[in-house]
Amino acid sequence: MYDLDLHHIFQLGLILVMIAAGITAIAKKFKQPYPIALVIVGAIIGLVNIPVLEPLKDFITEGEVFNFVIITLFLPALLGEAALKLPFSHLNENKKPILALAFGGTFLSFLIIGFSSLWLLGLSIPAAFVFAALMSATDPVSVLSIFKSVGVKKRLSTVIEGESLFNDGLAVVLFNISAFSLISYLDMGILGAGHGVWEFIKVISLGLLIGGLLGYGFSRLTRYFDDYPLEIIFSIILFYGAFLLAESFEASGVIAVVVAALIFGNYGSKIGMSPATKLNISNFWDVVTLLANSLVFLMVGLEITRINVAEHWGLIFTAILIVLIARSFAVYGSLLFLKNIPLSWKHILNWGGLKGSLSIALVLSLPRDFEGREEILILAFSVVLFSLVVQGLSIKPLITWLGVNKKEEGYQEYEALIARAHRYETGIEEINKVKKNLFITELVSESVVDEYKKQRTKLHNDINALFHKHPDLRKKQEIALLKHSLYAQHEAVGHLLKEDIISSEVAQQEQDLITNKIVELEEES
């Protein structure tokens, strides 16, 4: 019976992966943010009665299953992948806005939402501040995947990533204190406040310590191996080990993972990883996070449909308003005295403070007998749905309208010239291909082709003049050309190995050399 249950769970999981992969593929094909598409389709599947999918919906929307999949299974991987690829130098350059948002902004948002929920939503003290903790953090799963798909300037992207990686760890700590210890601390008065502050410091500090030690230890371990499959396994053990070990010591697992991955991705990659290893680890986690993100957002869509909002529209509207106002105070207030953050960036940071799967997973982890649990569920689910759909769909037009994703000078002109040159090349190829079938004489075809060639020559001259004016554009084209050449070389070596012309040892050596050159080009670009 046990084996049969595992077999059935595997079947349901495979169906979920197939649905998520299909929706993600379609969204990417049409260049739309796939997280939003998954949430919407998930909600539709949840609302519509599809007999074949009913067992899947019942399984996924079990609170314990959802909580385990999001927090224990996917969160360490998603946080680890994001922190692994975040250069410490970029974090250091932007530490002021990141710290201001992740700590100052989160605390400010927590207090505003907590007291507003107490007075305007009529929630009890623990329920009000639990809701405040859930809504104070920008969910890294939501933020990183959506912002990667819309494209923003590198520095703004670093601030967004840095905030989302650290402030959710803070919010989880605030959630645990609010849900399980707040009343006892309040009853103890000033002494209780001291206990609360100590608990907060202890949880954060232990998370930093555990993550730091494990990150350093695994980084040193990579010096003794040059074997990327093994080093990928090290990264898996590190991310999940840091999370679970920190949680077992009642520390912040989220902060432990982020710190461990930052050290491993910066210090570890510097002292113990070849460029080929770095590229392969990066590619592995790209696949894992795409799969995890796709499943997470589909599950969020399915889960959201399980709540009944019919009689709570007034409370829901008020809650959304409170969360939006608190986020505005958090962003503009915490960044008030920082002069190097443009106002347009603050608007993006404000509206891009999305809530997502982490909030839902945390609220589902509340004990069944927690006072106000149902009200918090309804409010949290509603805010998350509003955040992902309304804010998620409007963030890309807002970024474009504010000019935050504007390309560097000359790039639009370069794109237009390349497009026209490609048109003429295609036109010449098509004429040469069909002239025999259509019995076109050489005289006619040559006159048309000559005109196209003249236009093409003029365009090439214009492109060369543009390269002279903007050397960075030429460098980008050179890098793109070299990368395509190296990929072809990599494939050619693989073909020689397949035909048994060269040994696997020689093939591996050559492919590693090619991979190292590709990594160098990517770092240069």
From TrEMBL:
Membrane topology of the entry: Multi-pass membrane protein
Any one GO BP annotation for this protein: sodium ion import across plasma membrane
Annotated transmembrane regions: 6-27, 34-53, 65-86, 98-121, 127-147, 168-186, 198-216, 228-245, 251-269, 281-302, 314-336, 378-399
Keywords: Antiport, Cell membrane, Ion transport, Membrane, Sodium, Sodium transport, Transmembrane, Transmembrane helix, Transport
GO molecular function, a single term: sodium:proton antiporter activity
InterPro entries attached to this UniProt entry: Cation/H_exchanger_CPA1, Cation/H_exchanger_CPA1_bac, Cation/H_exchanger_TM
Transmembrane helix keyword on record: yes
Compartment(s): Cell membrane
Cation/H+ exchanger transmembrane domain: residues covered: 19-401
GO cellular component: plasma membrane
Similarity comment: Belongs to the monovalent cation:proton antiporter 1 (CPA1) transporter (TC 2.A.36) family.
Described purpose of this protein according to its UniProt entry: Na(+)/H(+) antiporter that extrudes sodium in exchange for external protons.
PANTHER family (UniProt xref): NA(+)_H(+) ANTIPORTER NHAS2, SODIUM/HYDROGEN EXCHANGER
Protein name per the record: Na+/H+ antiporter
Organism, as annotated: Oceanobacillus jordanicus
Lineage: Bacteria, Bacillati, Bacillota, Bacilli, Bacillales
